[in-house]
Design a protein that fits this description.
single chain; alpha+beta; 5-stranded mixed β-sheet; globular
């Protein structure tokens, strides 16, 4: 069952909380932001991201790794990235 909501509370660095439809809660601690947020592209929050269920410290959070990967691929297919190399797309 995928999570339906996620957030990062103030004062708990490197922590993301997930909530599930059945009331279960999980606390993911440590690791990278990409891992904690199921966000391999470290995407920033946006309503356009398919499947985004929350945000944590200015990063989008997805219910599972697969949805995070799909959002990253969708982002890279947008016109803004059409003429860029992968290196150009990920550069700040």
């Amino acid at each position: 069952m995928p999570a339906i909501y996620a957030y990062a509370p103030e004062g708990e660095a490197r922590t993301t909380f997930y909530e599930f439809a059945n009331g279960r809660k999980e606390k993911w601690i440590g690791g990278s932001a990409a891992w904690r947020n199921n966000n391999p592209g470290n995407l920033r929050p946006a309503k356009a991201h398919p499947g985004q269920i929350g945000e944590a410290r200015n990063f989008a959070v997805f219910p599972d790794h697969d949805k995070g990967k799909k959002a990253m691929v969708a982002q890279l297919k947008r016109p803004l990235y059409a003429t860029k190399t992968l290196e150009q797309a990920i550069s700040p």
